[in-house]
Design a protein that fits this description.
Elements: E1 2-4, E2 7-9, E3 18-23, H1 30-33, E4 39-40, E5 48-50, E6 81-82, E7 85-89, E8 92-95, H2 96-108, H3 117-137, H4 144-162, H5 165-172, H6 176-201, H7 208-216, E9 225-226, E10 229-237, H8 243-261, H9 267-274, H10 278-281, E11 290-291, H11 297-303, E12 316-317, E13 322-331, E14 334-342, H12 348-367, H13 372-379, H14 383-386, E15 404-405, H15 411-417, E16 429-432, E17 438-449, E18 452-453, H16 460-485, E19 489-491
Antiparallel strand pairs: 1-2, 2-3, 3-5, 3-6, 4-6, 7-8, 7-19, 9-18, 10-15, 10-17, 11-14, 12-13, 13-14, 16-17
Helix pairs in contact: 2-3, 3-6, 4-5, 4-6, 7-16
């Protein structure tokens, strides 16, 4: 017996006997939200499925399953809400409630499944199950820290869309904690699917000759439009916290260490209460099994030298702030540890001082005292761009490039760049970088290419990306159709006339 979101499914081995699927009157969450989409039992009705004769026996005429064989379960009574197995993929069932749950979530997120949603949604769920099956065979993993971070991002997005946490809870009829629990497996599965897709296409490449051949005979008005692209140089100054503020942070961390060593409180509890790393704080500071290369170098140097899970590390300064660390476990070249992160507060006077210095530097550049590139290579705090004369690199593309579409730039930078002419240097402004730190900067618009039809000489990388994406899509499509051929598939008759994206779902 499996319990899926309080939906009780009774099935025997090898899918050979009848199944009755019912959601009891105590069902919560998605089942309540979509209750109007489900069927209601009368005294004599029951939806049963004989998997041994799947194509012929999806009806209400089959014998009822024996509920008495399962302790704690009773036969559905009048007015109970009934769910239904609509597809079987391998040994995995797809329920009608699974389809309605995806429809509901898509509606919340503004996703349009089109006019064919009743066919599109179950097919998407079935394809996901094919990827998950292969991911399990290939031992692909997703860490708890990845799951926690992704779930938090999703919930924060929902809160912003709803307007407040309270309105979100009211709309979904769930607490934030319940949402996290429900999203955990969904997000894990989505990441497993993504990693499996990436593995399938990781070896695909295209040559310049293939790119030229693909676009050779394409009419000019069919060539892709390339959005406006820009190249941007930056020169940054990071406002520093006062010595008193750094000492306050260190004293607080030392106090945590003292309380842990005295047994007054656990490391995990303190991390949940005080850590300023939201992704791990809700997990008691736990990061999950992580390799050295995935961690800040200063953090990793200390964490990988820990040997006693009962001890707390010395205070570590990283790019993110100040930490204390506790080892949980070690597996080969990966460790699982907890940490508490505290970030020093930056005073407004320090920000004003950094901006004044940058404006002074900008004035010298405009006067010709030195070039922006010379200033960035010597005066900038940003190590990622300093060695490249301040030129920003776009890692969102398949290959690193200095060109950005406006939407790919940090929003604060994009707003300023949009006001500049080529060669112009901005006034100082501030932003929060990817490490969560406040930085002040000036920027220069090095180049701008307005929206245009793609040409092989000017836009080779974008055109290559288009061909590469097509080759990857073809690989995925062919893999899915081959996987369908090799997998046991059955569905309710109502789905057999659907127009599916992939061939082979309907089998005689």
């Amino acid at each position: 017996m499996k319990n899926i979101k309080k939906t009780y499914i009774i099935a025997t081995a090898m899918l050979a006997t009848a199944v009755t699927v019912a959601i009891g009157s105590n069902a919560t969450g998605i089942a309540r939200s979509t209750g109007s989409m489900l069927t209601t039992l009368s005294d004599s009705d029951s939806i049963t499925t004989d998997f041994g004769k799947f194509a012929d026996t999806f009806s209400n005429d089959s014998d009822k399953a024996d509920f008495s064989a399962e302790p704690g379960l009773t036969e559905p009574t009048k007015g109970s809400i009934v769910d239904e197995v609509i597809w079987v993929v391998g040994d995995e069932a797809i329920l009608r409630s699974d389809v309605e749950a995806m429809r509901l979530q898509g509606s919340m997120e503004g996703h349009d499944f089109g006019d064919n949603a009743d066919c599109t949604i179950p097919e998407q769920i079935a394809v996901q199950k094919l990827f998950l099956h292969q991911a399990a065979l290939d031992s692909i993993e997703v860490t708890e820290s990845e799951i926690t971070q992704g779930v938090d991002q999703q919930i924060n997005y929902w809160i912003q869309a709803a307007g407040s946490k309270e309105r979100l809870e009211q709309y979904r009829r769930q607490s934030i904690t319940q949402m996290r629990q429900q999203l955990h497996d969904d997000y894990k599965n989505s990441q497993l699917v993504q990693k499996m897709r990436q593995k399938l296409v990781e070896g695909i490449t295209v040559s310049p000759a293939e790119v030229r051949e693909y676009f050779r005979n394409m009419p000019e008005d069919s060539l892709p439009k390339i959005p406006t692209t820009v190249e941007v140089e930056i020169l940054t100054q990071t406002p520093k916290p006062t010595t008193e503020e750094v000492n306050r942070i260190k004293d607080e961390l030392r106090g945590f260490t003292d309380r842990i060593n005295k047994g007054e409180i656990s490391f995990a509890t303190l991390a949940s209460l005080y850590s300023e790393d939201p992704g791990s704080a809700r997990q008691g500071g736990e990061l999950g099994y992580t390799g050295r290369g995935m961690l800040d170098p200063a953090f990793a140097a200390v964490a990988f030298n820990l040997t006693d899970p009962k001890k707390v590390s010395k205070i570590v300064e990283s790019e993110f702030g100040y930490h204390i660390i506790q080892l949980i476990d070690r597996r080969g070249d990966r460790i699982n540890c907890r940490h508490i992160l505290l970030k020093p507060r930056i005073e407004e006077s320090a920000i004003e001082k950094a901006e004044a210095r940058l404006d002074s530097i900008g004035d010298d550049i405009r006067k010709g005292t030195f070039t922006f590139e010379q200033g960035a290579s010597v005066l900038s705090d940003d190590k990622d761009t300093r060695n490249n004369n301040g030129l920003m690199a776009n890692s969102n593309q398949s290959e690193r490039t200095s060109r950005f579409h406006m939407q790919d730039l940090p929003s604060e930078v994009a707003k300023v760049v949009d006001t500049l002419k080529v060669g112009e240097v901005s006034k100082a402004f501030q932003m929060v970088n990817e490490r969560g730190k406040t930085v002040c900067l000036i920027c220069k618009l090095k180049s701008r290419v307005e929206e245009h039809r793609a040409t092989i000489t000017e836009d080779f990388q974008e055109m290559k990306d288009i061909v590469l994406a097509k080759r990857r899509d073809e690989k995925i499509h062919n893999w899915v159709e081959q996987k369908i051929k090799d997998t046991y598939i059955r569905m309710l008759p109502e789905y057999k006339n659907c127009k599916f994206e992939y061939d082979g779902w309907v089998k005689d």
